[in-house]
Amino acid sequence: MSAHTMRAIRLHEHGGPEALRHEEVPVPRPGQGEVLVRVHAVGVNPPDWYLRDGMSNLPPETRPTFTLPVIPGTDLSGVVEAVAADVDGFSVGDEVFGLLRFPGFDGSTYAEYVAAPASDLALKPAGIDHLHAAGAPMAGLTAWQFLIDLGHDHPSPFQTARHRPVPLHSGVTVLVNGAAGGVGHLALQLAKEKDARVIAVASGAHESFLRELGADEFIDYTKERPEDLVRDVDLVLDTVGGPHSRRLLRTLKRGGSHFPVFFGEFDEKENTELGVTVTGTQVRSNGAQLAELGRLLDAGTVRVAIDSTFALADARAAHERAARGHIRGKIVLTAA
After folding, report:
1. For the chain, what is the domain count?
2. Distance CA 72, CA 52 (A)
3. Is residue 135 located within the same domain as residue 165?
4. Where is 177: in which H helix or E strand?
5. CA-CA distance, 27 to 217, in Å (whole number)?
6. pTM score
7. 205 — phi, psi (to 5°)?
8. Torsion of CA 215, 307, 331, 300, to 10 degrees
9. pLDDT (tens digit per residue) in 22-46
10. Range(s) of the domain holding residue 30
C-alpha cells in the first residue's frame, strides 16, 4: 500500500454483512471547507446497515440517492492531517470527532482517511479517548436535537410540523424506551443533566447499567408493558419507534409529547382525543452542537458506553453483532 492509498470498507452491491468488502482505495483529498482526518475510530450506526441492505425499511420518498461502490459510515474520531486553505478553526494535529454529511449517505468514515466538512467537526474532548468519542456523534446529536435544541430549520421527511423539544427540568418526567441503546443511554443522561425524572425501559440485563446512569425507575419490557404501568408522563422518547410506538401514548398526560426516533404509525384522531403531540425530526450534522456535547463528555457529566469493538477489517462482524440486537451503548470500529 502506497502513501496515496488506504484501506476502507466498500459496498459494491446491497446485501447482508458479507457485502462489506475490505479494500485498498485512494486517499481522498480535502476540498473547499474540508479537512483530511486520519481516522482512529468509527461509530457504527443503524443508517450503516440501512445503506448496506438498500434502505428497504425506509419509505421510497425518503431514501437518499447514492451510487455504488460506496464507503459506509458517518461517525468518526481522529486526527487532522491536512486543512483546506479556506478552513479556519482547525489545524494539523488537532484531535476531532464528528457526524459527517448526514442525513446523506456519503460520510465515508469506514476508512483510514476521510475528507470531512469542517462544519461537521468539533475538537475531541481531551478527557475521553478516540474509541468513546467515535461513539458519540450520531447518537449524541440525535438525543440532543430531539431533547435539547433542534438547531436547524430543515423540515423532516416524516412530518410537516417542525419538531420542538420539550423544556426539561425537575418537574418533568421522561420515559425513554430502548434506554440501553446508543441514543437511549445518552438521552437518559442528557435528561438527568437537566434534572428531569427518567423512567428507563429496556430488558432486565441492563437494569444496573441504566440505574448507574441515573434512571429513577426501570421497567423490564420482557416482563411488563410500560403502557400498563405508567401514567401522566410528560414526554416519551421512543428510540425504538416503528409500528408499535403508538402504544406508549397511553403513558402520557394530557398535553404530553411523544417523540419517536424512528418514524411510527400514528392516528391524528387518537392523538387529539388523548390531547398529546407526536413529533420527530431527522438528525443532522452539526459541529457546534457536538462541541456543546463534547463539554459534557469532557466533564464526565455524560459518558458513552461501548458495547463492543472491532477492527475496521472486521466490519462484517460488527454488523453481525448489531443484527443480534440488545446492544448496550455503541459498537465501534478501530481504524488506527
Report:
1. 2
2. 8
3. no
4. strand 173-177
5. 49
6. 0.96
7. -65, -20
8. 50
9. 999 999 999 999 999 999 999 999 9
10. 5-139+283-334
